[in-house]
Amino acid sequence: MAYSTMPRTTTIYKDFEPAYEWSQEQNSDTLLIYLPDFKKEDIKVQIDNYGNLRVEGERRLERNQRLRFSKDFEIPDNCNVDDIRANFRDGLLYIWLPKLITKAELEEEKPKVTQKPEEQKPNNQKKETDEKQSTRVQEELEKIEQPKKDHERDDKKKEEFSWPDGISEVKEKEKEVGNGMKKENGSLALDKSQQRKLLINVAVAFMVLVGLGMYVTFKMSKS
């Protein structure tokens, strides 16, 4: 019995290097791989035992020919490996590699609280403050001036005190005598006319005082 043998078809693989590019952003890195004519089921993305990102793909060309690729990419040190995501669309493979957020970066991202500048006091409040200070200063000045005013008031009361007519004349005469005195060589000197006037004034004053004393005695004995 004779057997017919058919030649076995051998698959021919064609390797190629896909084009790719990296895009770096603040919170993640993005790997973009160009894979035209590939389908989602033709592609496989995984992390190998060495911590590298491996992307593999294979598709049929014609008859016994197939197109394939295998590419390893180094994962950045600051990448959060557990959150790596991939998406294939329209011949483009997108792979997102999010970055780890450190404690220091979290502190930097916290909104800084800026201290508000001290609010300026309204003009009317400032005016009230100035008026209070001015009033306080005025009160202190019045405390200092008050004893002086009291002393002047007492002197004025003494000047306004009304003496009896006779006593007032004696006072006026004493003033005239005092005005007629001249100071010579450190002593007071009177001329003859002034001495005569002085004696007359003294006599008149004595008589007035005697008369006033008698009048007062008469009034007291009568009452």
Indicate the overall shape: rod-shaped
Radius of gyration: 63 Å
Tally of individual helices? 4
Summed over residues and divided by their number, the pLDDT gives a mean of 76
GO cellular component, one term: plasma membrane
Domain SHSP: 11-114
Transmembrane segments: 198-218
Membrane topology: Single-pass membrane protein
What does the model show?
Helix content is 41%, strand content 26%. Strand 7 and strand 8 form a beta hairpin. About 3% of the residues have low confidence. The longest helix is centred in the middle third of the chain and has 38 residues. It is of the alpha+beta class and 223 residues long. Helix 3 runs antiparallel to helix 4. The strands form three sheets. Strands 1-6-5-4 form a four-stranded mixed sheet, with no helix packed on it. It has four helices and ten strands. Among the domains are: 90 residues, Immunoglobulin-like; 64 residues. It is found in: Cell membrane. Belongs to the small heat shock protein (HSP20) family. Pfam families: HSP20. This is Inactive protein RESTRICTED TEV MOVEMENT 2-like. Its main location: membrane.
